[in-house]
Amino acid sequence: MSVPRSAFSAARAMKHVLAIAKRPHPVGSAEHDQMRDYLIAQLRNLGLDPQIQNATGVCTRSADAGRVQNILARMPGRQSGGPAVLLVAHYDSVEAAPGAADDGAGIAAILETVRALRAGAPLLHDIIVLFTDGEEPGLLGAAAFVREHPWAKDVAMALNFEARGTTGRSLMFETGPGNLDAVRVLRTVPGVTAGSVFTTIYRTMPNDTDLSELALLGIPALNFAFGDGADRYHTSRDDIAHLNTGSLQHHGQQALALARAFANGPLPRQRTGDAVFFDLPLIGFVVYSEKWAMLLALVAAALAVVVIIRSRRESTRFGRDVVLGAAATIGAVVLSGAAAYLAGLVIALLHTIVPWGGAPAWSPVYWAAVAILSL
Ligand SMILES: [Zn+2]
Fold first, then answer.
1. Is the same domain home to 44 and 73?
2. Of 280, 305, 334, which marks where a domain is finished?
3. Residues 297 and 364 in one domain
4. Angle at 289 between CA 288 and CA 291, to 5 degrees
5. In order along the chain (375 residues), what is the average pLDDT of each group of 10 residues?
6. How far apart are CA 99 and CA 17, in angstroms?
7. What separation in Å is there between the alpha carbon of 172 and the centre of ligand 1?
8. ipTM confidence
9. Same-domain check for residues 19 and 102
């Protein structure tokens, strides 16, 4: 079945992955230079006028610095030169990994998105494509863009695409500040996987992507990554054979739909507070303002009081039932948390015994995340 030219096609995007993820392409390697040249050629093929930003990137979150070559292109909208939507992925890999998923999938998703955008009607605002360099050694390209590139001040919305595994759904796991507005737009995209519980936990974690540097722009942003098959992350098995085409499709259809929605909508976006959001089977994606959370909690508490009063009239063993019920509820939470924590300990122990790859250095964070999620 052929996919319409204005739609995202993972089959078309996969051709880019095949071209760029044959071998690892860390900063300083010949493969890295070939990758840069390939991306420049592809952006030219798409009718854009790509440029290279040669700069020294200085990470603001660690003591890392180095020379980078960011690749940029600007797709003009009908109101060209003003606020723009930024599409970001990094084109360097770690030394061990061919980087089919991290971040070949992000790069390929953006190239195919730009192709589909150019096949459709012109957008209102500009799209800026940023293929960052030196993400793996310390977000160096993103830092250099924020600090030095003249287009940085035009960015009104940033969409970043990453991977922490080779398969699974492309989860929206991080937002910019005051995310209610951006998440409302996200709701218009079919098949979104996201939850404010994930974005809230992520804000407390030390993990970084290019968005950590772009956050200095203080702009709204959405960050996507798939993370199943995490044992292949940063290993030789982050390769073409293990990249799930479905994950690439999920990355890309969200990139395309959001690029269209934000570039055709008002820019800069209105300032809002944070949202509570989650996706449910059958019901779909639910979004409401964080302001409603306290009210909903009070309503739930009031309903609990009503139930207690009613059951007190009906039951002679009221006191014992309430205590047992409350104890069972709290006990279940504590036990499931403890079980998950123990499971995390076992997994971390296995990591030290079996050389699975992955990132055992994160294991304390991992235990905490598993325990919190189990609640
Ligand atoms: Zn990455």
1. yes
2. 280
3. yes
4. 135
5. 89 97 96 98 98 96 94 97 97 97 98 97 97 97 98 98 96 96 96 93 89 96 96 96 97 98 97 94 91 92 87 71 86 88 79 58 59 63
6. 9
7. 15
8. 0.94
9. yes
